[in-house]
């Protein structure tokens, strides 16, 4: 049979995050109990005014401007200007149906090979490869998978040059999915300086930036709205994480007001006009409220951060207690432990990769997690990386949509005001992890 899809498209598969969801649904249909730590979908109840604004706009059916509704671009510009302490004009903002298509478009239109920290969110690598670009991993500290150093940047760059390609794009994501790490100001300075010296466009994916456990780090960003053409930094963000509205599909990019920034912005607008036209109108109208700096929204963002900090912190402490190698998350809602301290036991069980380990956990312990290999970890690389799993806390709050709205607002409020809260699904997850480690400890060596 002749090829139906081209050779680049043939390499695409369903994203591992969505695949694990399907596996969990199947196991549950078979009556199995599965604790879902595999999917990073924020599930808190949507802030009431934002929800109301979406309902009120449901009869708005016209296409909006390609770049997004002006008031929404103004709201996004002013929110980020406040957070970062820089000037941002609404004209620098482009709104899209999620930040994912914007990232996809940016990898597609920008020139040159790509540098990505290892590990990185599951979708960047397929997006880069689909844009027919070469990807070079920038190694992070092998023990906690956190820090990027100048030497790791130079070594990834050197590798690309030795293979005859020039990196012109780099992406960083802080707080990071999967590690929960927040880059320090000095680390960001190192990355920016490196990108400037090598004429690399830097994309900073800040979709988790509100969920920083140390309030003072919320404004730490590579984006400075500079009009200096020797550096080009593009910021992306959206509605999916802080506002628990992933399905409404609202994301944005902010471009620098420099000549290069303008060229990229205009090109992505032309791309958008031929591809998605505009983001959903009711969702855009509701987002004007979401990104506002009103007292109600600031307090909502605070409560969301407090609850993620509490739950993610508890899971991190439990994993540490169980003897796993795990870095302390500084933001987001993920932990990224390595089971490498139990490498001998895993070997006895015939488990040699993070995918084997993730399959064993779902089969034997009813725990769904994502393997490190989905984030670029090398199955033939160092031990730490081979046994890493990403665990998401976002499904540990409610069992149903009804519970989400009946209990969610009170839970957010209680956590923010420091009251005692009960998270039975978190306790259950910790117990299942204790049992899994007990199983490993009981393997005869
Ligand atoms: C690091 C990161 N960037 C971007 C996205 C995309 O979010 P959206 O397309 O919903 O804006 C996600 C979603 O999981 C993510 O984890």
TrEMBL record:
Pfam families: Aminotran_1_2. This is Pyridoxal phosphate-dependent transferase. Its cofactor is pyridoxal 5'-phosphate. Belongs to the class-I pyridoxal-phosphate-dependent aminotransferase family. GO terms for molecular function: pyridoxal phosphate binding; transaminase activity. The keyword Transferase applies. GO terms for biological process: amino acid metabolic process. It comes from Aspergillus caelatus. Keywords: Aminotransferase, Pyridoxal phosphate, Transferase. InterPro entries: Aminotransferase_I/II_large, AspAT/PAT-like, NHTrfase_class1_PyrdxlP-BS, PyrdxlP-dep_Trfase, PyrdxlP-dep_Trfase_major, PyrdxlP-dep_Trfase_small. Residues 33-391 form the Aminotransferase class I/classII large domain.
